[in-house]
Amino acid sequence: MLMQKILEIENVSVNYPVSSGMFNETKEYIHALNHVSLDIYKGEVLGLVGESGCGKSTLGKAILRLITPEGRVLFENRDIMDFRKKELKSFRKNAQLIFQNPFSSLNPRMTIHEILREPLVIHGIRDRKIIEDKIKNILDMTGLDNEILTRYPHEFSGGQRQRIAIARALILQPEFLVADEPVSALDVSIQAQIVKLLLELKEKMQLTILFVSHDLGVVKYISDRIAVMYLGEIVETAPSDELFKNPKHPYTKALISAVPTVGQKRDTDVIQLEGDLPSPKNPPKACKFHTRCPYVMEICRQTAPEKTFFSLNHYTRCHLYDKDEKK
Question: How far apart are alpha carbons 193 and 187 in whole angstroms?
Answer without folding.
Answer: 10
